[in-house]
Amino acid sequence: MKHVLTYLIGLMFGLGISFGGMANPAKVVNFFDVAGTWDPSLAFVMGGAVITAFIGYRFVFGRWDTPVFEPRFNVPTNRKLDARLLGGAAVFGIGWGIAGFCPGGALPALGTGNINVFIFFAALVVGILTAKLLMKRSAQRSAA
């Protein structure tokens, strides 16, 4: 049952991303082009997502002590704004603005067969693996 619900939630997410236009890189790039062909429509998509998530979190955390399929909620506990977080956010934003894809929008866009999506996704995976390797090496140096 857990996998069926996971699939249905992922399907709903992918359809929402696609119908909202966030899987279309031209629409995303135009959203970031405030000095040129600015398209503010994605602000409404993101605003709707934030409101929905806010209500959803309040509903879930207000009613249940534990999730249905896991022993506990996995909520981030780090509340620090450090260089690593801000640097990662900057790289994410710059990549999103240049490529027109964020990881969430790229996953459903893989179904379009567009080679640019596959290139972006490959670069995303390489970036994640590189970051993990660098963090591992940094931890090893700190321990030594």
TrEMBL record:
Regions crossing the membrane: 41-60, 81-101, 113-135
Keywords of this entry: Membrane, Transmembrane, Transmembrane helix
Keyword Transmembrane attributed: yes
Domain of life: Bacteria
Record-linked InterPro entries: DUF6691 (IPR046513)
UniProt name for this protein: Permease
Originating organism: Pacificibacter marinus
